[in-house]
Design brief:
- The complex is a heterodimer of chains A (433) and B (325).
- Chain A has 433 residues and is an alpha+beta fold.
- Chain A is 47% helix and 13% strand.
- The two termini of chain B are 32 Å apart.
- Chain B is globular, with a radius of gyration of 24 Å.
- Mean pLDDT of chain B is 86; it is low at 1-21.
- Classes of the chains: A alpha+beta (433), B mainly alpha (325).
- Chain A binds chain B through residues 84-87, 90-91, 93-94, 111-112, 115-117, 198-199, 257-258, 260-265, 393-394, 396-397, 400, 403-404, 407-408, 411, 413, 422, 430, 433, and chain B through 71, 73-76, 93, 154, 158-162, 174, 176-182, 266-267, 269-272, 283, 286-289.
């Protein structure tokens, strides 16, 4: 008994010792990396990237440091940055102690710039020859607010409809001629769906599943969400009402709660319903290609542009990331050098080559072979006509309001017109402040 | 923040059955008032906590009163706008929806929590072999982080392969799509929250342990049955603890955040049926740059909780029984 106690004590001591060693190890490492040599400027860089994108950004940093031995990049992983969850950066800026560079969702640039919390990069860009022409127009525009540049774009994406070739063959649809009009899409969805009672064995298509956001459908129906000249939201544009009406009719036809029951039971990754063959078509982005390669390499699939009512004027929308200098950053000059490198051709080639996210520079995408890949080329080819979400001060509010309008419309809590008019009123009231 | 306020008088109430009003303490306290030297040392030792309280609690608290009258956005100082934030709240549809959702949750969760909590505590108070094991089992869920709890229940409530609908189907019921349905999403959340009841049960157990055995012995001699013993001895003597858990339950219910936030990835889906008050407050503050508006919401919430707590305190005189009074 006594011996046992002694042994327990020894084990406890060992645990404490190892823990403290790990802890001190960590702290000493981080403090030494922050110091660097004397004439080195340290640029603190906050980013939320892990896994492959993490490797990609590390490679960019490594190359940049090699070319600029006087600058050291202190990359700090900061969870939950972007998509309206930037409270860490927000408090750091208002507390006057922000990082020098932050990886930033372009979607948010408008509202943050309006709050005066990002450094204006217009002059720096002009004097060092960084031009709009090098980038896809939407990417540059999304990084600008009221004619001024606030971020350097780094990545982008686009959205198409993925379809299962075997399913198409099985029900007699021609995989060589996938739907181009909304009517054809609907007919195909009906053919592909197998429903038993309340449960779907297979569902052809769900407009709002995956990346089927209302922005995409609105643009495909030819609507406009925002008028930059008057700074007014135009959510009750008749074409947008049409788009939402179509989604609502779809929800009614297949019973929205049954669809919710179906989508609730679906997983992610390998369990994604498109990969398990329970969903025949879905709207998604280029990242789906690597997911399929990883989890279901033998899946036969193709992509086609999001159908439109007329079968013409196909479009899509793109989001993506940028690098920004928060207001109050200490090492603005060194930070700009890093921004320029990251968003320039060289940095883009390194990043996009590893991360397999599209570059915002067309020639880089070409050079990396994206235009030769039968699937990815479709995603790249549509980029020149892609839309970006409106650059406005109430981007997040608008997004949330549109998302709930879709939910409410499809669940029969009001007509599309009523709901979109309400969204419009609410957002415009905030915009006029 | 707010629950601390409700806590202080409660703690006194909790102790009073044992010690009763003690005049002795008051006298010694008065004597010591003159002894400044000791006070100084005391304050010195307590100063880290006092400074912390002022800096991280009092200052933000009072700033938020001021901010609630401004258009503060965190990133910019904002202007004084008077009562505008409060007026806008009254016309904000989603605000009322979030109030409705939160009240709905509280109305069902708090009473159910007390009923199940007391019942469970009484069962766990029986003299059965291996009771420690049972007690542990019922306490364990409270140790599970809310995020993990949310993920777990998403599986259990899954309409396709979830355990709950699986069990229902064996008795011929075609279960709803729980978290996918506006009607069932809030009941689902209440069910999930009740799962973490162990914390309250521990307090009830302590309360049960405080009831003297003699009462039961005496009742038994008089020929009382189980029901009579429960409703004439156990429940009345447990009321101080029920009272405590009621107040804490109300406060907790109105501050519901982590569970619905994780479940819906912050979206309050389906169709805002799970947008709770604090979630909407958070959205306003950190997503829409409306910290002034969010501060106003926080103060409205404070007033609501304060009023409810005061109401419970006032009515408590009628139904809370302290031993020895």
């Amino acid at each position: 008994m006594k011996q046992k106690k002694k042994r327990m004590g020894a084990i406890a001591l060992m645990i404490v010792l190892t823990l403290s060693m790990i802890l001190t190890g960590c702290s000493s490492k981080s403090s030494s990396s922050e110091k660097g040599s004397k004439n080195q400027t340290t640029v603190t860089f906050w980013h939320p990237m892990t896994d492959v994108t993490g490797e990609a950004v590390d490679a960019v940093i490594k190359e940049f440091e090699k070319q600029n031995p006087d600058i050291k990049i202190n990359a700090v992983y900061t969870a939950n940055q972007g998509e309206g969850q930037n409270e860490k950066l927000m408090t750091a800026i208002s507390g006057g102690n922000p990082p020098d560079v932050a990886y930033f969702d372009r979607f948010e640039i408008g509202s943050w710039a309006a709050q005066g919390s990002l450094e204006d990069l217009t002059q720096l860009a002009e004097s060092s020859g960084v031009k709009k022409e090098s980038y896809y127009p939407f990417a540059w525009d999304e990084a600008s607010y009221q004619g001024k540049l606030y971020g350097i774009p780094t990545t982008t994406d686009s959205r198409l409809v993925y379809f299962n070739i075997d399913h198409f063959k099985e029900v007699g649809l021609d995989p060589e001629n996938p739907p181009t009009t909304i009517a054809e899409l609907e007919a195909a969805a009906e053919k592909l769906t197998k429903k038993k009672g309340k449960r779907f064995e297979r569902i052809g298509f769900i407009p709002w599943f995956g990346q089927g956001w209302f922005y995409g459908w609105g643009w495909s129906f030819g609507g406009e969400f925002y008028n930059p000249e008057t700074n007014k939201a135009t959510a009750n544009d008749p074409k947008l009402v049409d788009a939402l009406q179509w989604m609502t009719d779809f929800a009614k036809k297949y019973n929205v709660e049954d669809i919710a029951g179906f989508t609730d039971s679906q997983g992610q990754g390998a369990m994604d319903p498109f990969l398990t063959g329970q969903l025949s078509m879905k709207v998604s982005g280029p990242w789906e290609v690597s997911a399929i390669k990883k989890f279901k390499p033998d899946l036969k699939y193709g992509v086609f542009p999001i159908p439109t009512p007329t079968g013409e004027n196909h479009t899509t929308w793109s989001g993506g990331w940028s690098v920004v200098i928060p207001k109050g950053a200490e090492n603005k000059e060194a930070a700009w050098k890093f921004l320029k490198f990251f968003g320039g051709e060289e940095g883009q080639k390194i990043f996009s080559g590893i991360a397999r996210d599209f570059s915002v520079i067309d020639s880089v995408n070409e050079e990396l072979g994206y235009k030769e890949d039968p699937i990815l080329k479709e995603f790249v080819n549509i980029l020149p006509v892609s839309h970006h979400r409106p650059v406005m001060t109430q981007g997040s509010l608008y997004w949330n309001e549109l998302a709930s309008a879709v939910e409410n419309a499809t669940r029969g809590n009001g007509t599309p017109e009523e709901l979109l008019t309400k969204v419009n009123e609410k957002v415009n009231k905030e915009l006029s402040k | 923040m707010i629950n601390v306020k409700g806590n202080i008088p409660l703690a006194e109430n909790m102790n009073s059955p044992k010690t009763g009003p003690n005049k002795q303490i008051n006298i010694t306290a008065k004597k010591r008032l003159g002894n400044w030297g000791e006070y100084k040392t005391g304050f010195l030792f307590a100063s880290p906590w006092i400074i912390g309280l002022l800096v991280f609690y009092a200052i933000p608290l009072f700033s938020s009163i001021y901010f609630s009258f401004t258009s503060y956005s965190i990133l910019q100082p904002g202007e004084f706008v008077g009562l505008e934030n409060y007026k806008n709240l009254m016309n904000d549809e989603l605000f009322w929806k979030s109030v409705y959702n939160t009240v709905y949750f509280a109305v069902f969760y708090v009473p159910l929590g007390i009923i199940f909590g007391v019942a469970l505590a009484m069962m766990l108070n029986m003299k059965v072999k291996g009771m420690a094991v049972y007690r542990t089992i019922f306490f364990l869920p409270t140790l599970v982080p809310h995020v993990a709890l949310a993920v777990l229940w998403m599986w259990l409530l899954n309409p396709g392969f979830g355990l709950v609908n699986g069990v229902l189907s064996t008795i011929g019921i075609d279960g709803p799509s729980w978290l996918g349905s506006e009607t069932w999403s809030k009941p689902s959340l209440i069910l999930m929250s009740l799962w973490g009841i162990g914390q309250a049960v521990v307090i009830y157990l302590a309360g049960l342990g405080d009831i003297p055995e003699d009462y039961y012995d005496a009742a038994e001699v008089d020929g009382a049955n189980w029901f009579q013993k429960t409703f004439h001895i156990t429940i009345p003597l447990l009321t101080p603890v029920i009272f405590f858990n009621l107040v804490m339950g109300i406060i907790g219910a109105f501050q519901q955040f982590t569970l619905p936030y994780t479940l819906t990835q912050g979206k309050g889906t389906p169709a805002n049926s799970l947008t709770f008050y604090v979630m909407y407050l958070y959205d306003n503050g950190f997503k829409f740059f409306k910290m002034g508006y969010a501060s106003a919401m926080a103060w409205v919430l404070f007033v609501i909780i304060m009023a409810l707590t005061a109401f419970v305190f006032i009515t408590s005189k009628r139904w809370v029984h302290y031993q020895g009074k």
